Amino acid sequence: MEPADPVLRPFVVFLWAAVAVAVTVGLTTFLVHLSDGADPQRLAGLLDIVRIGLSVGIGTGGLFALWLATRRQRSAEQTLALQREVSQTTVNDSTERRITEQYNKAIEQLGHEKAAVRLGAIYSLERIAQEHAGHRQTVIDVFCSYLRLPYEPPADRKRWSKSSAGLSPEAAEALAELEVRYTIQGMFWEHLGDPEKRKVGEKHWPDLVLNLSRATLVDPVLRFLAVRGLWCEQLVVHGTADFRGLRVTHIASFVKARFHDRAVFADGIFSESVALIDCTFEAGADLSGAAFLGLVTLIGCDFRGEVDLGGHSSRGFAAHNCQFDHGLVLRGGKCTLVMISDSDLQGTFVTDDLEVSAGLLAGCSFRTQPDRHPKIVLVDDLRDSDSYWRGVAAHFGIEFDGTMMST
Q: Exposure of 43 by Cβ count < 10 A (0-12 exposed, 13-18 middle, 19+ buried)?
């Protein structure tokens, strides 16, 4: 493959010069020979022709000189562009090298025994992510990984936060570690805020995934976050989990998550289907006013407080093999289908003002008689229902094998 801009070799210039000299000498010799005894009038005509030819030659030489100047200019511009590219590459390499050094140092400090050093590492990582958008997901993943480290918060942490006087060294260290975790959770709140609901300004880190699988959160206040994805497999939350106004643009998944206190997801927006599988809520779960653009599926969950889905909207709500120790409230909600099967409802089942196209309660046990809704059918067993509802069960990811429900 030939180069796009071939190099002008020196012998080409010498060849052009030799040709020009040869033509000049030859023409001069020819004119001298012709002038001997020639007719003056004819000689004058020949001289005019030669003069015109020389003018054309001079013009051609001027064009050649212009072409050479253009090549020199282009070569200079290419050299300058190459120098700029090399300079920019050097700057980028230097920047990445500096970021890597800062990142590695911060990661090392995250494992330091002193909480103050760990806090400094967190702020160093935050600065890297703030200044270099390409590293933001990595920094968020590091924060989530730190929260996966084994940790059991002190039960009397609220009393400790008011006064740390007289604490033992172990208690003081536990309180310091709690402060480190509060700081990371504060980073989530500060940088993952929903710009449509909060003033986040330049600190906003958009379109990131929050992977809280196997993490331990303590008293998280994460209102009005906006993330691309939320993964909560085996998440453990101590204290109230305040996710009010959460917006998830893609997947939100909760598998074997445990909430030791009240969980609040009220007024959230979930762009795809949401599944809660084998989760435990030791207190109430508030999903009132939430908007689910897909399906809401609860499978094998244990709710030890009231579950409030009042005013929510979804394409469909299904609960299978779930335990509801207190009320299940669907008051004022809007959903196409409601299906609850093989579940134990010990509290009230509230459906007043619920807008639903069709509903089914199959194989459920009730402590009190549930509200009767004109669109919701009550049967003792899903096998007593028609094929339509078995198809609905499969649509929610609940398979029916002819003898029992399985997930």
A: middle
- Which residues, in sequence order, are bridge partners of residue 302? 280, 323
Q: How far is CA 25 from CA 12, 22, 55, 100, in A?
A: 20, 5, 16, 70
Q: Which residues contact 201 (CB under 8 A, 6 or more apart)?
A: none
To the question of pTM greater than 0.85 for the whole model, the response is no
Helices (H), 36-152: 40-110, 115-131, 136-147
CA–centroid distance for 283 within its chain: 31
Three-state secondary-structure class, residue 254: strand
SS3 375: coil
Cβ-based neighbours of 148, under 8 Å, separated by 6 or more: 213, 214, 215, 216
Q: Closest by alpha carbon to 345, among 377, 379, 368, 311?
A: 368
pLDDT in tens, 45-99: 666 666 766 666 676 667 767 877 887 888 888 888 887 887 777 666 667 788 8
405 confidence band (pLDDT: 50, 70, 90): very low
DSSP single-letter state for residue 371: P
Read off the tokens for 398: 């609940």
Where are the chain's structural domains?
10-101
Say if CB 330 and CB 307 are below 8 A apart: no
Q: What is the pLDDT of residues 381-393, one digit of tens each?
A: 656 555 666 666 6
Residues 6+ apart with CB under 8 A from 264: 240, 241, 242, 243, 244, 286
- Model confidence at 269, pLDDT cuts 50, 70, 90, reads very high
* Torsion angle of the four alpha carbons 11, 12, 18, 22, in this order, in degrees rounded to the nearest 10: 150
